[in-house]
Amino acid sequence: MCDFSHSPEILINASLQAIFDIVSNPDNHIELTESDELNTMTQKPPGPVGLGTRFIAEETVVMGNGSTKTLTGESIVVTYDSPNSFSWVVVPQTQSGGSSGGSE
Q1: Nearest Cα to Cα of residue 88 among 1, 4, 2
Q2: 75 phi, psi to nearest 5 deg
Q3: For residues 54 and 91, what is the distance between their CA atoms, to the nearest angstrom?
Q4: What are φ and ψ of residue 97, in 5° steps?
Q5: What are the C-alpha distances in Å from 88 to residues 26, 43, 83, 84?
Q6: For the whole prediction, is pTM greater than 0.90?
Q7: Counting Cβ atoms within 10 Å, is residue 57 exposed (0-12), middle (13-18) or buried (19+)?
Q8: Is the pLDDT of residue 17 over 90?
Q9: Which pLDDT tens digit goes with each residue over 72-104?
Q10: How many angstroms separate the CA atoms of 10 and 23, rounded?
Q11: Which of 13-17, 26-30, 46-50, 75-79 has the lowest mean pLDDT?
Q12: How far apart are alpha carbons 88 and 79 in whole angstroms?
């Protein structure tokens, strides 16, 4: 199984809590990705984000031949320690379609 981790470093003149509040809010993720691929980000259940919160992301990916494919992926918050740590993992897609799937 492939794992992906992305950990850029940047100096931001703001409190840990202010940064945590931005990064842990799914409403900000479309802007934070700086990509035209992420169309929607939905939080389940609605309300405060915390351990176990799920995010449903709909993305339109441009394939190598120029065609596009719309994909839906689900992630779950696995670390929520305000203001120190926030992380999530993608819920694997099962062969029967499972928790995430795609359409053309």
Answers
A1: 4
A2: -125, 155
A3: 9
A4: 110, -40
A5: 12, 13, 15, 14
A6: no
A7: buried
A8: yes
A9: 999 999 999 999 999 999 998 765 444 444 444
A10: 14
A11: 26-30
A12: 7
SS (H, E, C) the chain: CCCCCCCCCCCCCCCHHHHHHHHCCHHHHHHHHCCCCEEEEEEECCCCCCCCCEEEEEEEEECCCCCEEEEEEEEEEEEEECCCEEEEEECCCCCCCCCCEEEC
Amino acid at 38: L
Which two three-digit tokens encode residue 91? Answer: 């819920």
pLDDT of residue 94: 62
Count of CB atoms situated within 10 Å of the CB of 65: 5
Q: Which two tokens stand for residue 87?
A: 């992380």
